[in-house]
Each structure stands twice: as C-alpha cells, then as structure tokens.
Here is the input.
Amino acid sequence: MPVQPVHVLVLGGTTEARRLAEHLVAHDPGVQVTTSLAGRVSAPRLPPGDVRVGGFGGPDGLAAWVREHDVDALIDATHPFAATMSRNAAEAAAQAHVPLLALRRPGWVAQDGDRWHAAGSLAEAAELLPALGERVFLTTGRMGLAAFAGAALDDLWFLVRSVDAPEPPCPARTEVLLDRGPFTLEGERALIRRHRLDVLVTKDSGGDATAPKLTAAREAGIPVVVVRRPPVPEGVPVARTPEEAVEWVRRRYASG
Here is the structure.
C-alpha cells in the first residue's frame, strides 16, 4: 500500500457512482475519492468522500484539474446519455496520462409481450409518436423537450416526469410531474390508468430504479419508444457494476 492514498476522481450523478464512492470510502482507506457532480439537479444526493459541483470547462479544464489535484485514476460514472462528458473524460484522461474506466449499468432488454420501437435520438422518437398514441408518458428527463415541442405534435398530450421543473420550449399540451425514482410497479400502473396513457417514451438508461414503467407498459399493452444510448468512447474499458469498478481501482493501487 503506498504511503500517499490513490486519488480517484469519479464523474458522478448516478446511483452507481454513489455506490462506488460509498464502497471505496468505507472499505478502501488507501483511496481518496472525489466525486464531481454537474450541478444540474437542485438537491442531489451527495456521496461520501470529497465532492465538487460544477463543470470543468471542457476536456482541457478537466485535464488541468486532474493534474492539479494529483488524480491517479478517473472513473466516468455519469449517466449513460451524458455523451459529451464521456468524450471530454476520454480526451482529458489521454492529455493527463491517467487511466480511465467507464462505469455503465447494462441497458434494458425487451421481454415477451413488449412493444418496443427503437429510436436513435429524441428527434427520431418524436417522429414516431403520432402513429403510436395520443397521450404520451415522457420520461426522458427535463433536457431535450424541445424535440417534442413542434407543431406536428400539438394534438398529443404529454405527461412529463422529471426531478426538476423543465424549461421551455415544451410540448404544447403538457402536464409536469416532479418526482424522483426509484418508482414502484403499482405506482406506474396507477399513473398509466389515471392519465389514460397510451404510449411511453424513455431513454435506455438501464437499472432498476425506473424499470417498473416498462413492466407496467407491457402489462397495459402500450407501445414504448426506447431511445438508444450512445456508445462509450472507443478504447475505454467498461465496468458494468460498482463492484467491478472497485476491483479495477484495487488493481491500480495494488500494482503501485
């Protein structure tokens, strides 16, 4: 074990990032953990260890922070759709000559009875909606709602669920539901019944916290538009669980 602790910078904001920090802080005294949060959520759940909030100013700024704070390893545990941050992390790690790991929960897999329609972007998802339903359960978060605000969708009604209130532009006919997962299957069933929802739009975020909506949609027989997640930057190794990421960190400092 080195005298100086290994400094791991976790680009966080996800449940997996928080679990990773919790495990390293509780069980690995040879590791100093700093979690960076983007600051887009008004009341984030803070992980243990050191926490910084706010952007870095692009890959150059991130690389400079890594060098200035003697970071030994970088873990990109951001949301699977935070493609810009993931690209910045890959470029910064190369500039600063530190190892980089991407922590990504597995995506969802369609099951028997699912009526999934794949989309490559929010814009593609919006184009599919008029042929699928009239009352839309939109669970893609508060960012990117402009894709659903076009006149072609003015006849549709949207229930928009997000942690914080979305900013305009929003769909013309919108009801906002402020809520944070994890969500229960019974709660999702009740939402579908109460609002007479007939189509669901979601990003392929993976994980258990928001998966019950998929089961509820399958039970109700309603179609689901699933936006595909962007790929991890080329050459970056991937851990599927916080436990795999912990082992990666341990191998780094065990090897000195």
